[in-house]
What we know:
single chain; alpha/beta; Ubiquitin-like (UB roll); Rossmann fold; three-stranded mixed sheet; 8 helices
Amino acid sequence: xxxxxxxxxxxxxxxxxxxxxxxxxxxxxxxxxxxxxxxxxxxxxxxxxxxxxxxxxxxxxxxxxxxxxxxxxxxxxxxxxxxxxxxxxxxxxxxxxxxxxxxxxxxxxxxxxxxxxxxxxxxxxxxxxxxxxxxxxxxxxxxxxxxxxxxxxxxxxxxxxxxxxxxxxxxxxxxxxxxxxxxxxxxxxxxxxxxxxxxxxxxxxxxxxxxxxxxxxxxxxxxxxxxxxxxxxxxxxxx
Length: 239
């Protein structure tokens, strides 16, 4: 008789738990995060099929996986909060540069492929070798630091399949660095900037640094050709 009572109690308890699971709906989806490219409405719409269930039946892993597949989601945590809330915390991806003409990279070199990159035309553009995004970005960062030390701003940085480098500044000046000793050549050019002066630098169209001991300059069509003999360094050398 006692055993029968225990069985009946367990059956009632199981039935009660099952009933509770069925009648406790999810009433709130709480989404936290600082968003510039995501919207909470977009997130809730993506999750709607997964949260139209009871509180206990919600598949937290499936919710996480759905969020992880969204273009602008870098990281997400999902938790149940008793008694009717799914709490979500999202870290949004931040674009750092454009990657070619159709994608973006974040600060870690991870690719972001939005449907439209037109809103990001203010970002510098990196042309690099497919599959070498991280390495290409680290090189670009180092070059950009060297340029910023001389108040130069990069618009484009290119690395071709032979690993030759090319820089384009926001002023339009192109700097060709070739495949070897690129940073050494760039630093050599930087040392001549104070001698040349800002006016002469602004008159340059292309600087070709692919020479072992110097560089060649192509001037803008309306530029006054530099008189190298009248530069202070040249005058000092002739004394």
